[in-house]
Write a structure and sequence with these properties.
alpha+beta; four-stranded antiparallel sheet
């Protein structure tokens, strides 16, 4: 029994370190140039439990008329949405994220200032950096 617990602990730690390495390697959504004919809205998303939730949220946001492009990233904790100006409201995007939920997950979105999503994600991961440094 102790051996199984040890294996599970090692797997959890490896996933945490690997996920952080992928998040650090991923380009920042704020580095993507905004479409000059559209408006960019950044959403912080809560309630998701894994990276596979991205597809549900992406699908729901793209279903909103007037949404041009969506960049959803679990590792950063949110989405950067390019919309047609004056056609989509922030409330519509928030409702779309909430509608992507199911029995197992309920998503909540809040609008945050553009360019702050990556900063918030790095602040959140600061607490685990010491752990990753143990294996360098």
């Amino acid at each position: 029994m102790r051996g199984i617990l040890l294996h599970v602990s090692v797997i959890v730690i490896a996933v945490m370190i690997g996920g952080q390495a992928l998040a650090d390697a991923a380009p920042s959504p704020q580095a993507t140039p905004a479409n000059p004919t559209g408006e960019v809205i950044t959403l912080k998303i809560e309630g998701w439990t894994c990276a596979s939730c991205e597809k549900d949220i992406r699908r729901a946001l793209l279903a909103v008329p007037g949404v041009k492009q969506v960049d959803v990233r679990y590792a950063l904790g949110g989405a950067v949405v390019t919309i047609e100006s004056n056609r989509v409201s922030q409330e519509q995007l928030i409702k779309a994220v909430a509608s992507a939920g199911n029995i197992l997950a309920s998503y909540r979105a809040t609008v945050i200032p553009n360019g702050t999503l990556a900063a918030q994600a790095s602040e959140k991961s600061e607490g685990w950096k010491w752990f990753g440094n143990l294996f360098k």
